[in-house]
Amino acid sequence: MNDHQIVDSSFTAIINAPIEKIDIPAWAFALPDLEYQGCSPAHVAAGFTTAPDGTRMSINVEIIGGSLMVQHYVEKLAQPDHLVLESNSDVFTPSGRTIIRVVWELSVKALDDGRCEFTNHVMSFATKDMLTLLDRQGIPFEVFRTQRQPMSIAHNQGETPLFAASIERAALRN
Q: Given a cut of 50, is residue 18 above it in pLDDT?
């Protein structure tokens, strides 16, 4: 964990579909709002757009630990079995708005002809903006990290099997 990493969380779940039918980027960039909301009680909304250079973006809104987050996920790697997204996410706290960097990596690997293991890996990092906000409040980064980790890890653990089920449904429709 680097000095400004807040969370490094990874969970797995089984997808009952052959790997050939799975396309994580197609799922992620076509995920209906209600389907996204059904993958966690913390999920508020999802939508899609493009970055100025035309790169696909997924916009996700969720509430983690009482803070509203608007995530602007930009596609960094897109293969049917592996998607990496990065976001400079807006976080709205009682003390003000700040930015957190999030790397979201989704991948699958075949277990056999009809099953895959899905991995939902999330890493978050404090930005200079966030460190300034914490400093203004007199909150040491280590204290913030220690308090934030359980909420973020629990969120990832809860959404992973629901994302896997959603990806499975999409794969079996194809």
A: yes
pLDDT in tens, 91-109: 998 888 999 999 999 999 9
8 A C-beta contact, residue 98 and residue 91 = yes
Tell me how long the chain is: 174
The model carries a pTM of 0.94
Q: What is the CATH number of the domain that holds 15?
A: 3.30.530.20
User: What is the β-pairing status of strands 67-79 and 56-64?
Assistant: antiparallel
Structural domain count of the chain:
1
Sheet holding 67-79, edge to edge: 5-15, 115-126, 96-112, 82-93, 67-79, 56-64, 43-50
What domain range includes position 102?
5-173
Question: Which residues does 22 contact at the CB level (< 8 Å), separation at least 6?
Answer: 15, 80, 81, 108, 116, 167, 171
